Amino acid sequence: MSTTADRRAAAAAKCLTLDNMNPNIKVMEYAVRGPLVIRAGEIEKELQSVSRQAYRPI
Question: Cα dist. 55→5, 36, 47, 52, 58 in Å?
Answer without folding.
Answer: 59, 21, 12, 9, 9
